[in-house]
Amino acid sequence: MPSVRNLKKDINFVLGDIIEAVYIYEMTTSGKPSEKTNAIIDEAITSFDGLIEKVNAKNVENKKAHFKQINSDLEQTANQLVEKINALS
Description:
0% strand
């Protein structure tokens, strides 16, 4: 089982890279934020907060299954956000 620290790092890196991709999109197109790009960034931040809250939950019976589910949620959220970024083009 991967460590909690590595899971937190993965969440931070994945969602941070998605936010960075939105900023790159903004710089290469209009040069300024739009409502759609701000919505994607807000969703990424909200997802980050929710996932970190799940990681820090103490009242979990089966930790291995719990962390596996968090990892799955991260992957699903990241895929949805990337699809939204790709739809901006």
